Amino acid sequence: MTDTLRAFSSPWAGHPKGSSEYRRILYALACAGVATFAQLYSPQGILPEISESLDVTADQSALLISVATLGLAAAVLPWSIVADRIGRLPAMRLSLIAATTFGLAVTVCPNFTGVLVLRALEGAALGGLPALAMTYLQEEIAPAHTAVAAGTYISGTTIGGLSGRIVAAPFTQWLDWRWGVGSVVLLSALAATAFMLLAPTPRGFRRARGEDRPSLVYVLWANLRSPQMLVLYVQGFALMGGFVTMYNYLSFRLQAPPFLLPSSLIAFLFLAYLAGTWSSRRAGTIAGTRGRLSVLLVSIAVMVAGVLITLVDSLPVIIVGLVVLTIGFFGAHSIASGWSAARARVGRAQAASLYNLFYYAGSSVVGWAGGVVFIHAGWTATALLVAGLAVIAGGCAATVLRSR
């Protein structure tokens, strides 16, 4: 009896790698990544068709991505507060149910303004997943294996982003863009159901009592005043903003001369996401032996190289550049997102949420601004903008994160 009480009262060490609970958590979060990012980015590969159907310009149609990611960015902190009270897993479940509801509403909304509002609400609902996934991993998995686990979760998000684009395109060509988006919502609902069935009962979550819980202002300020945490947040803003810009406007470039590709073929370019599926997990594995900073900097350099390769007016070369870009981005994102949760000294859920706030704010702000640059100055200027942001992010990381 004494041994049982001692085991119950001892600090939770996390599920070890190889245990059935460890595997269930990874599979569950991979499904959650599919459910979240398939919905979030399903319009990206069919923006030209949406632009034509709703009679809006290229940068206006890209707002379907920007408002969703902006809604997600705005919601990550509120979701972290909800999760501190009801638990990480219940909050993530609620997030996916709400997102599926708003996603279905998008498919029947008749006008562009209404679609934008519903996309913003869908993004806000989806904010519960990326806001809490890293915190959930840190609480439930043994510390020695969290970098690999984080990489596995990020690889699931790449599968989600890929499947959303690949599934939406053929339905859009055969029917219209609403059927394309709707098919992705149904796919996401299946993935969300798998997440709910697979995720084991949490053991690491401890609900703080009111008098023991630090104020939100204190927690946010404690993380924002840390130069190291702030630089990690800059990684999310700059790298994600550039990455989304490249994928947002590549469709428009490839549908124009000299390429003149149909959207059904352009959608297959998103298979480059599979390279990110590999690199995100691989980056987490290498970081365990080489250190996070070196992997982050190399990943950023690879991303810049990929961006510059896309400047060549040759489809095979552009495809190579897209693959290289994707490898670098997801490697860097895997490291920065996991590092922000692991490094937090107070308010781990809020620290991870701040990373996601910057990450999706970059997607919204830079993703839209990149469209303005693309319309007025062309692809070369857009690519140089993305490369410049990545160089700034890498310079900040090399300067500030070198000292622990």
UniProtKB/TrEMBL annotation:
<feature type="transmembrane region" description="Helical">
    <location>
        <begin position="25"/>
        <end position="42"/>
    </location>
</feature>
<feature type="transmembrane region" description="Helical">
    <location>
        <begin position="354"/>
        <end position="375"/>
    </location>
</feature>
<comment type="similarity">
    <text>Belongs to the major facilitator superfamily.</text>
</comment>
<feature type="transmembrane region" description="Helical">
    <location>
        <begin position="318"/>
        <end position="342"/>
    </location>
</feature>
<dbReference type="Pfam" id="PF07690">
    <property type="entry name" value="MFS_1"/>
</dbReference>
<protein>
    <submittedName>
        <fullName>MFS transporter</fullName>
    </submittedName>
</protein>
<feature type="transmembrane region" description="Helical">
    <location>
        <begin position="295"/>
        <end position="312"/>
    </location>
</feature>
<dbReference type="InterPro" id="IPR036259">
    <property type="entry name" value="MFS_trans_sf"/>
</dbReference>
<keyword id="KW-1133">Transmembrane helix</keyword>
<feature type="transmembrane region" description="Helical">
    <location>
        <begin position="230"/>
        <end position="250"/>
    </location>
</feature>
<keyword id="KW-1003">Cell membrane</keyword>
<feature type="transmembrane region" description="Helical">
    <location>
        <begin position="179"/>
        <end position="199"/>
    </location>
</feature>
<dbReference type="InterPro" id="IPR011701">
    <property type="entry name" value="MFS"/>
</dbReference>
<keyword id="KW-0812">Transmembrane</keyword>
<feature type="domain" description="Major facilitator superfamily (MFS) profile">
    <location>
        <begin position="25"/>
        <end position="404"/>
    </location>
</feature>
<dbReference type="InterPro" id="IPR020846">
    <property type="entry name" value="MFS_dom"/>
</dbReference>
<feature type="transmembrane region" description="Helical">
    <location>
        <begin position="62"/>
        <end position="82"/>
    </location>
</feature>
<keyword id="KW-0813">Transport</keyword>
<feature type="transmembrane region" description="Helical">
    <location>
        <begin position="381"/>
        <end position="401"/>
    </location>
</feature>
<feature type="transmembrane region" description="Helical">
    <location>
        <begin position="256"/>
        <end position="275"/>
    </location>
</feature>
<feature type="transmembrane region" description="Helical">
    <location>
        <begin position="94"/>
        <end position="118"/>
    </location>
</feature>
<keyword id="KW-0472">Membrane</keyword>
